[in-house]
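Title: Prediction job returns without error message
Component: structure pipeline
Severity: low
Priority: P3
Assignee: unassigned

Description:
Job completed but the reporter wants confirmation the result is attached to the right record. Sequence as submitted:
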Amino acid sequence: MKQFSLKTKVTLLFPLCVTIVLTGILFLTHSLLQNYIKESISTQQYQILSILADDIDRSVADHHKTLQIIASRVTKAMVDNPEQSLAYLQGQDEHLLTFDNGLSLFDPQGRIVAEIPHELKLLGKNFSYREYFKQTIATRKPFLSNPFESAQQHHQPLIMFTAPIFDENGSLIAVMGGSVDLTRSAFIEKLLRVKLAKGGYLYLFNKDRMLISHPDKKRVMKQDVPPGSNPLFDRAIEGFNGTGETVTSRGLRTLSSFKHLATKNWIIAANYPLSEAYAPVYRLKIAFLIILPLLSLATFWFMRRYLIRFTDPIVQFTHHVENLPWKNGAERIFPVQGGDEVAILGQAFNTLVHETDLQREKLVADLERHERTDALLHRQNEYLTTLHETTLGLISRLDVSNLLQTIVTRAGKLVGTEHCFVYLANAEGTAMDMVYQSGIYNSLIHHPITPGQGIAGRVWNTGEPFHVDDYSRWEGRLTDPERDILHAMAGVPLKANREVIGVLGLAFIDQAVVFNEEQIELLTQFGELASLALDNARLFDAAQKELVERTKAEEELRKLSHVVEQSPVSIVITDLQGNIEYANQHFTNLTGYSQEELLGQNSRILKSGLTTQAQYQTLWETILSGQEWRGEFQNIKKNGDLYWELALISPLRNSSGVITHFMAIKEDITERKKMENLLRYSQKMEAVGQLAGGVAHDFNNILTAIIGYATILQIKIPENSFLKSTTDQILASAERGASLTQGLLAFSRNEVNNPVRIDLNGVLDRVDKLLMRLVGKDIRLMTLPSGQPLPVMADSMQMEQVLMNLISNARDAMPEGGEITISTDMVKLDSNFIAAHGFGNSGQFALLTVSDSGHGMEAETVKHIFEPFHTTKETGKGTGLGLSIVYGIIKKHNGYILCHSLPGTGTIFQVYLPLTDGDDQPDPTHEIKTPFHSGSETILLAEDDDPTRALARELLEEFGYTVIEAQDGIQALEKFREYRDVIRLVILDAIMPSMKGMDVYREIRTISPDERVIVCSGYAVDIMEGQETLDHNLHFIAKPFMPKELLMKIREVLGNAA
């Protein structure tokens, strides 16, 4: 790698530092200037909004004040006389400058009594449905409406100012309205005239996200800023006033301000494009980026030109140092001139050269002295040879206790003493115990020592030999007076793997004898040999123990192998590539492969293609990192059958901790998966059933009112009236709605509504024409009924609903037209059917098949086709409940439904219903007309739904009955106690606030046990679950009911039915 000179480095480094500093200044200036511009524009923009908002608030107040002045002169006589009202308004035409879309006078019912300009032609029209009229009537105060589309021919967006008009008694007699055309409004035009830079603009909107004013006229009166598309817009709707950066719903980055009006829930806003706001900053940044490289180049040129004079002395000094090895004497001294840093460095170098020369001379003298000691070393070598021969006996001893005795004996003989000992560390390494001693140490008491205690503790602590000439005077001695008899002492370490495991100690009692350096060196080498012998003996002892343990482990392994082979779960061992090296018997039984077929094969032979690649990748990443992986697979057996298994895969390591294999423990969970899927589907169906039941119950009250009032109209309208057919259509549609709600209620329960013995062919024949109208002209519908009767126990109405839903789905699958075929047949289900589908009972079944030539479905879609809320239709064109209801109806009829489909081949639905014996029964859906009569009795009517109660009262009074009304259960009890002597019948809604119908019935029984009661509900007899059995005075009628059904039930209960 090329080395740069000091001159080059300084020349490059200084301009680089200057460039970095200037760059920092650039970005700091850029940030400060950008923040200043942002704060300045934000402040000015918000001030402009505040001024405009105050102006709009004043304008709104002025409009209200003007309208109230006009309204204050209106009298009851004017309201009653349209010509007088018009004359008055024409006298106020100067105010059309304020209310440029006209002035209108409304009567209390919302009809226009008078208007100007008169050309509007709205006289007599009813506008009671408008928000501004409703709010004015409700609050009895002036009101400003939200923008709405004018009913006039121009259909411009308007706002309406209203003022209520009262007579001298405070009664509201009229409403004065003044409308303003937003396209011509003065205070709206002010917003459009204000310009904020080139691309800036102001606009006005309300909290319902409707744009009241905007430069883009196409966006006015639209809610085209969805939540989340403009965060600051969303905050403004929640109450934010102020300015901030945001991205508009059209993707424009702006500095936006928002100000709420005081008089209306309107918000005025301004958008200032950031690209224009920060344009000066961007220009300054570009200028800096141009100047900065030029300034860096100038600095580099200056440094290069003037740095030579400063670096020449350093270059000369470098050359002198490079040639120093070839110089002698005075040539080795560098000539120093001046007193700068280079001169000081040269003086220090000269001093260092002088000291080095002196050290070299001393080294030569030392070499001569070392030659003189060679003779002494030769003698020591001969002594060590003798030592080696002595210690051979140590190495050959394998019994630890015998070895310790030999160590102590031979060590004492080497230095001429019998007072020796050996300390060994315990297993925890926290203390040392004396394990063998001789001489004087046999008469002493010994205790465990810790690092640093006594001679042995010091050697343990340092790992180095140690000796003292007078133990009794050594400050580190053990606090034991008996040991004061010892004089000179020495200790050497016994080591294993460079760790101190023990200490060999020796002592002299003779005061005249001490240890010399040669003896310490000799003992040190003996200690190394003793350590080796001790380590060898310990290894031998461990090997003997390991042999015993291995024999025991092999026996345990044989037992474990037997357990693995007989295990009720699959156990597989593979190499690092997934190749199978072992598989137990359970695995071969499960997969169908033999041991010979499996060994050497890769585990991927079990892959079914239904497990994602991501799951396999996670598995391999986990086990290759040394962790366990747990998960589920759907694999394939040798015969092609799919099965589920729960797997735990763990890495296997060798003695070095390296992963060599993987072991998988797998459990077959196929049956458990089937049960989980069944449970999950049952829970979904139960949840949808509860939802359907709740919705249907609410619809029953609505349908009761519709059917009732339509029936009353039908009775009152002459037979030759053109309205007769209209009411017939209303009744027919309402009855179909009632049938649908009954189907939903049946779906929400676990039994069929009205099961009777019917012919499935008859159902198909009855709805054939209706289905023709349902599919339209582009689709050909073919019906192929069976040639023999197909008697089934079923609810006819629900069977019709099944057909309608299946045909509707088939029609939607063929937007370009096609063919639908409906056929019925008699089939026999046997064990082959049950084995193929996993469900069913053997026997005779009626088969209903609906097939289409539509676009078909993928296999994954077919798998979920009957799940609630699963739909293949576009958003808003399907609820996902149709086929779920079909599935629920068929299951409640103890039947089965199958779906077969492939992309491009159409779809086939097959419905299996068990056949039954016996005669056909009348279809309850075809009503038998029975006459009914009027009466004169008094009836207590308790119903919390106002339209239903009003209908029942009007109906009963129409047929001669006297009606006492109650809005809830508590009021019903109060009315019964008050009028019990005249009441002959009580009609109760089953579900009412404060007190349920059955609770009211029980209270009535305590007051009058013989009182006759009719309970009404859309839940049929389900409401009686957990209640007492119906007695002879308690009767039931299901909602929605036909008026004649109610009248007939009343006569039946009162005992006077004709």
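Comment from assignee: result matches the submitted record. Residues 990 and 997 are 4 Å apart (CA to CA).
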